[in-house]
């Protein structure tokens, strides 16, 4: 039973409750933790991309003043981190990732030993004294090298350097469909390798609590319970003997939703030494040796009829996952995501796809905001643009003819899409661009010799993945559900505890809005706890836009149970059925007599301090728990992005003149927070489209080890974003909300790329790869002589 209040908080832009603490310097991050006797750790890392280890000599390291200890894999004897899929070896090859490399190194920056010293600077001095010798092996730094017939193997067990090779779908007769189709268009799309680049790098503080006989690990992770599970197994401890606590966190973006090796090694060092140990990743290691993302290659074709409607889609997806599978998602996360969801918002009657994850001598890949969707959406949107040109149709019109309009819709990929506003968002976005005068300005600019382009992307964002959706990937570790507890004390204040974890998503505000509305309570009386594995039995953390859709639903259900108990206690005191009561502004009110109320403090006194007055069927206390899982194919947010760019002929620079976003995430618990998520995601999408990329030389050395080399956009390059909200409430979540965390990143690369190609239309040049460099644009805009034309 929910509140009778008219002034509901859900749907309102309530001011962020986190801000006063964070903006006044009262936040507490991992690096703020100081403990008596604390030591500091840094890691000896591989300087070669591929080779066998012939020796690790730490003798001189231990002699460096201030160094307390140095440990190699042989010293610590830790278990490996191994991610598994329940697939045959023909489809998936598991690879063990040692916490510290033992026999072989597989990328530059791979951790070999941990050095522990009195301060981080002395630990850095210790690194310089380490002596590591290798027998180098040929490094593989690109897809072509990895898949060559004579390529050396990154892992002996992975033939063809392929970790995943799955054909999820193959519609019968698809070849004949393409043979008969009036129009067939092709794209070859590549996206650059990126770094998720959270403001706060990874870090950990580990200590042994002798009284509790428990390892306490403070770390900035999106998935504290999974870190606990892996740490207990690698360290051979009972899981009860590991407590993971996440303080404030400065961003994650998926990078921190996998279990890293350094956190485990830091914990092992603390156990061995009996003293607290802190490790904070420096920016050089964060850029080059941390988990990376995005490097993918799509070879795709689409068949269309004479009216511009899709007849079939055929794709080959290759994802370069670097040296290892990440835990728990494995190397399958990128190709399986792309294969399952590539048709997206379009009605595709026939579909065939092959998805592969290959291994190379580069830092391993973790999920990064969007997880393959920015890439497959870019491939699909390029196909739509190419078909529009081939059929001489307006790019928006061809999308109108193909987007899903009847819901629920079960696609050729066996996914059922819940109701959304695919056509409505497309129409509204085009109207917003047109009413802002950009089509007229584009025409005027063309007469002046300027190059202005307008581009769109339409997409859905699968959010609120439940256990069933993850199980379809055959993951051995199956995320999905989340658990919440809501507890009221004798003062009538409420504490909500959730298995999700905020790293910038405003959970302290949005979860409190849900609880306050459900209980008819002042939001100031609600406090959120998260990020502590001893406070909640298990939780899957925050990734894949699941926090409000799944975690928020669990909170809503738990708060509802608590509200039911309050009403039952009040009803018993009045001698009436609970159905004749309602919650309203911190009180239970009789429906038949609005002036008759009992305050929550009074009811809490009975529940805790006068439990002898409770009916026999009501237990003492005011605590409720709930579990929520999305028992279907998940929920689908959707959006359309429209971008206006100008290409500068003299420099090749791409200037974004205007950006429009029309999004539908179901019920927006806090519209201001949703807009913040959109803008932040769009900034990261623009970064991938135009700026960020990590490349490797022939020896496997990464190109970007500082911000001198890794180009990150600033506020100057990111435009103002005009956002319009649509609302299609979700029937599968307790809040009506869908996820909103990744949509901005998903839509931006395709929209920017399409706008650039629209500006390049007079040149006849089309681009399909990102990032789009000034050199590429300059070349495209520079007239060529017949002799220069290939």
TrEMBL record:
Transmembrane segments: none annotated. Residues 24-138 form the Aldehyde oxidase/xanthine dehydrogenase a/b hammerhead domain. It comes from the Bacteria. InterPro entries: Ald_Oxase/Xan_DH_a/b, Ald_Oxase/Xan_DH_a/b_sf, Ald_Oxase/xanthine_DH-like, AldOxase/xan_DH_MoCoBD1, AldOxase/xan_DH_MoCoBD2, AldOxase/xan_DH_Mopterin-bd_sf. Keywords: Molybdenum, Oxidoreductase. SUPFAM superfamilies: CO dehydrogenase molybdoprotein N-domain-like, Molybdenum cofactor-binding domain. This is Xanthine dehydrogenase family protein molybdopterin-binding subunit. It comes from Streptomyces rugosispiralis. The lineage of its organism: Bacteria, Bacillati, Actinomycetota, Actinomycetes, Kitasatosporales.
């Amino acid at each position: 039973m929910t509140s009778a209040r008219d002034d509901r908080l859900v749907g309102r832009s309530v001011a962020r409750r986190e801000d006063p603490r964070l903006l006044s310097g009262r936040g507490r991050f991992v690096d703020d933790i100081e403990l008596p006797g604390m030591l500091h750790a840094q890691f000896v890392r591989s300087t070669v991309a591929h080779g066998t280890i012939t020796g690790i000599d730490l003798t001189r390291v231990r002699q460096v003043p201030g160094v307390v200890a140095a440990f190699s894999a042989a010293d610590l004897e830790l278990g490996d981190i191994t991610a598994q899929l329940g697939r045959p070896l023909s489809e998936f090859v598991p690879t063990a990732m040692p916490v510290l490399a033992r026999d072989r190194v597989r990328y530059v920056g791979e951790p070999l030993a941990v050095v522990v010293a009195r301060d981080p600077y002395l630990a850095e001095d210790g690194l310089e004294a380490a002596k590591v010798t290798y027998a180098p092996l040929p490094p593989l730094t690109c897809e072509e090298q990895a898949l060559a017939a004579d390529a050396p193997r990154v892992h002996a067990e992975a033939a063809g350097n392929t970790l995943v090779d799955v054909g999820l779908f193959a519609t019968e007769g698809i070849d004949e469909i393409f043979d008969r189709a009036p129009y067939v268009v092709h794209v070859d799309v590549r996206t650059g390798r990126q770094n998720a680049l959270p403001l706060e790098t990874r870090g950990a503080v580990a200590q042994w609590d002798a009284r509790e006989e428990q390892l306490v690990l403070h770390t900035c992770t999106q998935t504290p319970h999974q870190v606990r599970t892996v740490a207990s197994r690698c360290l051979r401890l009972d899981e009860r003997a590991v407590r993971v606590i996440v303080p404030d966190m400065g961003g994650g973006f998926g990078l921190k939703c996998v279990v890293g090796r350094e956190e485990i090694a830091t914990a092992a060092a603390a156990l061995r030494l009996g003293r607290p140990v802190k490790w904070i990743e420096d920016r050089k290691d964060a850029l080059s040796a941390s988990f990376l993302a995005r490097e993918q290659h799509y070879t795709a074709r689409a068949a269309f009829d004479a009216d511009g409607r899709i007849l079939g889609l055929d794709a080959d997806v290759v994802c370069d996952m670097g040296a290892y599978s990440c835990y728990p998602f494995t190397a399958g996360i990128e190709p399986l995501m792309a294969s399952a969801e590539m048709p997206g918002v379009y009605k595709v009657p026939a579909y065939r796809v092959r998805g592969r994850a290959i291994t190379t001598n580069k830092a391993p890949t973790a999920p990064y905001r969007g997880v393959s969707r920015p890439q497959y959406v870019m491939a699909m949107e390029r196909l739509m643009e190419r078909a529009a040109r081939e059929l001489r149709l307006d790019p928006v019109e061809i999308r109108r003819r193909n987007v899903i309009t009847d819901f629920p819709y079960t696609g050729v990929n066996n996914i059922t899409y819940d109701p959304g506003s695919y056509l409505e968002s497309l129409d509204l976005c085009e109207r917003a661009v047109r009413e802002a005068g950009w089509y007229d300005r584009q025409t005027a600019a063309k007469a002046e010799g300027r190059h202005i382009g307008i581009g769109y992307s339409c997409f859905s964002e699968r959010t609120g993945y439940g256990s069933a959706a993850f199980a379809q990937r055959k993951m051995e570790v199956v995320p999905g559900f989340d658990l919440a507890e809501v507890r009221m004390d004798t003062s009538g204040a409420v504490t909500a505890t959730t298995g999700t974890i905020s790293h910038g998503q405003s959970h302290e505000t949005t979860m409190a809005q849900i609880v306050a509305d459900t209980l008819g309570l002042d939001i100031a009386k609600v406090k959120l706890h998260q990020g502590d594995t001893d406070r909640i039995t298990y939780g899957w953390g925050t990734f894949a836009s699941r926090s409000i859709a799944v975690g928020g639903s669990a909170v809503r259900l738990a708060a509802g149970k608590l509200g039911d108990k309050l009403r039952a206690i009040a009803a018993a005191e009045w001698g009436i059925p609970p159905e004749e009561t309602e919650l309203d502004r911190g009180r239970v009110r009789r429906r038949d007599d609005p002036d008759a109320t009992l305050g929550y403090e009074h009811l809490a006194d009975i529940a805790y301090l006068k439990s002898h007055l409770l009916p026999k069927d009501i237990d003492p206390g005011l605590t409720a728990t709930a579990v929520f899982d999305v028992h279907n194919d998940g929920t689908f947010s959707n959006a359309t992005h429209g971008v206006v760019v100008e290409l500068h002929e003299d420099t090749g620079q791409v200037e974004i003149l205007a950006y429009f976003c029309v999004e539908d995430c179901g019920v927006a618990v806090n519209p201001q927070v949703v807009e913040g998520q959109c803008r932040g995601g769009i900034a990261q999408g623009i970064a991938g489209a135009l700026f960020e990329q990590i490349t490797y030389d022939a020896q496997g050395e990464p190109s970007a080890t500082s911000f001198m080399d890794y180009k990150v956009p600033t506020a100057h390059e990111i435009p103002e974003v005009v956002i319009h909200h649509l609302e299609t409430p979700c029937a599968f979540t307790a809040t009506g909300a869908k996820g909103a965390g990744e949509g901005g990143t998903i839509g931006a690369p395709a929209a920017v790329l399409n706008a650039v190609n629209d500006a390049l239309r007079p040149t006849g040049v089309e681009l399909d790869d990102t990032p789009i460099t000034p050199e590429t644009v300059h070349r495209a805009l520079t007239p060529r002589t017949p002799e220069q034309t290939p």
